[in-house]
Every structure is written in structure tokens, then in C-alpha cells.
Amino acid sequence: MKTTIYTSKFFFLALLGITTAISSCSRDKDTVPVIPPSDGTEMTLDGGEGGSSAENTVFVDLSTDTQKSIKRTSWSLGFYNGSQFRVILNNTAGASALKVNKTDLNAVSESDINLDDLAISLGTPGAFDNIDDLTGDLTKTLIPEISATESSNQVFVINPVGGSHGATISADNLYKVRILRSGNDYTLQYAQLNATTFQSLTIKKDDTYNFNYISLENGPITIEPKKADWDIEWTWSLYFGGAGANSFPYGYSDLIFINYLGGTTAAEVVFKDAEGNDNGKPSFADFSESDLAGISFSGSKGVMASDWRKTTGTPLGAQSDRYYLIKDSSGNIYKLRFTSMGAGNPPTDGGTRGYPELEYKLVKQG
């Protein structure tokens, strides 16, 4: 009787082992399906209300035909998730900032600054001292890299929504911040300018995103998609007017920036000359994979910027003499052109300002 019970248990365990092994082998053979990138589509971006000062920033992922729109003034500071400890201001809201030579946040008030020094000198050559770097170079952020030596991190006064000369800047709208390291993370101390107490917030690095974002009014907020999930952004932003030594800060509508920190690169192809004649380069419709030879892709944030459209001169609107090649972080290459943006009154390209239209097509799969 005992032998029979033992044999039954042994048989059951053996059978269970065989079943498990078969199941494991079956699972080992299962593969996660690979979703191919989009072949391309047409898209209207949701820039929202405001026309030439449209309220949204729009992030676009070409390989999945998706866009994400979010109010560009909804964040104040971006905390870099890479190896550097860098913090950016919101150029898409026209933010400005001043350093105060103090490290005690509670000891800083309106009396420590001249409010007018926060005004942005739009159109004044070289007036970049109170705004963040416009190229996206993280070694040149207005707030220096956050030091591991706590006493080296000073207080900054932030005007989250900016203002040009002539605008009234109220202390009630300003914040004071001090940012420290906390191991591999950040500690943000912040308060309204004349407050005598402050709040403290730990911001943990997450390398699936380029930045973690904070609204000084409302706290943490998600702005960008994960860094692997977007390629270009369309937005209003501070950017460069003029050229060279005569360049100056200027508020631009309809700017296009690439996801340069996430590995996106791009190239411009102008296939017509100034008189509108073909210059020997393939048109948007004709460009194919064989034409990629000799194309030089750039990782510059502003490789597209405002060159794709005109708001003065002729012809207004989306420029039909050019298109762009976008290489995403997976190596997929798309050709992309804007077909309307709504410039002019009435719009000369048939579009609606704040809702630009584009089309793109996969040229080479990564």
C-alpha cells in the first residue's frame, strides 16, 4: 500500500515536470511581435488656440503616427535625466531668471533684485544674459550645473512666463529656487519671491525621459513623451533673430525642433532655386532610398527651426521648395514636408494658423 502511494506521487511529480518542461520550451519559442514603423501619413498638428502665439507645444512620433499636445506654459523647470546635473528654463514660455548671490532661500526677497532686469530685450543684439541657452547646449544652461558641493548652489529668481521691456513684471508672479544634488537625484527648494518659508521636492532621475518637468505653481508634470517616443516638436519659443554678432533673442511662432537629446537627426533638402526652378535635386515625391548617399544629417536642435515657413516676404506660409529628412533613434528615415501653416490674412497656403499640416513617407526602415 505504501509502495502504491509512493509510486503515484512519483508519477504525478514526473508528469508535472514533463508538463512544465514542455510549457517552458513553448514559452521559449514565443517571440514578441515586432511592430514595423509607419509607412507615413498626413497629419494636422493640434497647436491649439492663439494663432501665431498658439498655446500648445506638439510632440510628434513619425514611426507610430502619433502626436501629443500640451500647453507650453504648463512647466517652469526641466531636470535633465542624463549624466549631467543640468536644469533648463522654459524658452517656450519666454522664461527668464537672475542669480542672487545667496544660498539661504528664506533670506531672498524682492529687495535683492531689480525686477526690470528680468525683462527680455527682444531685438537687442547680444541680450541673452537672463534667458536660457537657445541652442539646447546643456553645457550652457543659465543655471550652472548643480554642484555636489552644496554651498556652491546659489539662489535664482525665476519669471516663469517672461516679459519683454515695457511689460509690467510683478513680484507676485516670481519664484525663488535653489537646487541641490541628492545622491543621483535633485532636490528643489522653491517659494514665491517674498515668502519666508519654502517647499522642498526630490526629483528622481529617469533615463527613459530627456527631462523631468516641474511647474513651480503646481508641482511635477509630464511634458515630453519618453525620449524614444518622439522625433520633432512644433512650438512657439524664444529663438535667434539676426545673425552672428548681431543676433538677438526673438519670440518665434511655428518653430520645429528635433529630439536631439534622444538621438534624432535631420537634413534639409532644397530642390528649387530662388527663381523657383528645379536645381537638380529630387523633389519630395521623387526622393527615394538611393538618394540618401551624400546626405549629411545634423543633430542640431534647430536644424529645421523656422526655415520651413515664411511669415514675411513671398511666398508666405509653408515653403514648397524644400522638405526634410528625419532619422529617428531607431534608424528609420522619413521624408517630411509641411503643406500649410496659415500665414497671411487670408492665409495664402490655405491653412489655419496654429494647426499646421504636414505629410511624411518612410524612405528607409532602420
TrEMBL record:
Keywords tagged on the record: Signal
InterPro entries in alphabetical order: HmuY
PROSITE patterns: PROKAR_LIPOPROTEIN
Domain of life: Bacteria
CDD domains: HmuY (cd12105)
Region described as Disordered: 33-52
Leader peptide range in chain numbering: 1-23
Listed name of the protein: Heme-binding HmuY-like protein
Organism expressing this protein natively: Albibacterium bauzanense
